[in-house]
Amino acid sequence: MFSVTYAQLNGWLTAFLWPFTRILALIAVAPLLGQRVVQTRVKIGLAGFITLIVAPTLGAMPHVTVFSAEGVWIIVNQFLIGIALGFTMQVVFAAVTAAGDIMGLGMGLGFATFFDPQTSANTSALSSLLNMFAMLTFLILDGHLQMLAALVASFESVPISANILGAPGWRILANWGSVVFASGLLLALPVVVALLITNLSLGILNRAAPQIGIFQIGFALTMMTGMLLIVMMVPNMIPFFARLFDSGIDEMGRIAAALRPAG
């Protein structure tokens, strides 16, 4: 007769549940995979499938009962690790969204917003366009596969038994948020500079010939200039996005390494 002891059942459960928690946490907040259009059952199924592949390679788990205080604390740590790694890649797309907002405000399209079910807020149309373009580039460059590979590699950098609350990786993650402003402004810089020159030219023209009616042609001119610059920037956006994605993947590895407590 086939029988299972409590120790065996606990060992099987811990070998699956703890890696599953980290993987599911990343999938829940990661770009593309964590979007609301992806059904919850699909996210859970994908996390379970990846866990079944990864779990046998992780070695022995801590000898802790799953539902004990220490076992629950390990689950909390795995959840925080997955959230931190997923948020690292979300920052990359936040930079693209920030660039779209900066361009839209300069072009006079700040009013062109619509409700985004992903963020449950009004989003600039230009930001959504750039974000969609970045998502397609992310898929073309296999960024989702690289992100999952970095997640699997994190099990070597941060073992299951690690206590991450006092680790310096959280400071690195906070500093990584500065890429939203730096990369977003860098992406929007050509449009910002061109619109600045356009507005200065319109101001000089208004002083020289007030009868032209700058307010009537200014909006159309700035919008047309911005659109023209965006079209010209498209061939150079893919290499820019590729470097941004590579930086995000590398940052995932650095944050995972820093989340491991010393000693």
TrEMBL record:
Subcellular location: Cell membrane; Bacterial flagellum basal body
Domain of life: Bacteria
Pfam families: Bac_export_1
Classification via InterPro entries: FliR (IPR006303), T3SS_IM_R (IPR002010)
TM region positions: 12-32, 44-61, 67-85, 92-115, 176-200, 212-234
Function recorded in the entry: Role in flagellar biosynthesis.
Protein name from the UniProt record: Flagellar biosynthetic protein FliR
